[in-house]
Amino acid sequence: MKKIALSKLFVALLGIVALGALAFNILAYCQVRQEITTVERDEQVVSKMFEVTKLIILKQQLGDTNATKQLLSSSINADLARLKILRGEVSPTVDESINVLLKVASKNQNEQTVYKLSMAQPVAR
């Protein structure tokens, strides 16, 4: 009788240990899946940032072709809007990189505006 009770207790303890191990594995899987998702989003965002940077450089190199610059500006603004949306879903390092790129793009747009205003004002004689 005592052996049967001990064996039942042993089986119950093994069941508890097995359930604990299963719960641990599920938690570990969820954490790994979240890391993979974050890395995938980081990759998307970094490639989008690369595209925006290329467009900004291209816009600077084109000179004064208004139609092309307007097309590039709208494309840059659309990509920047997408980056702002994805911002909360990426790792802190990529988020900081997005902040830097947004500042560069903003500075670029401000320089373009100042240049256009300076060209539009009459020259002091």
TrEMBL record:
Identify the species of origin. Pedosphaera parvula (strain Ellin514)
Superkingdom of origin: Bacteria
Q: What is this protein called?
A: Uncharacterized protein
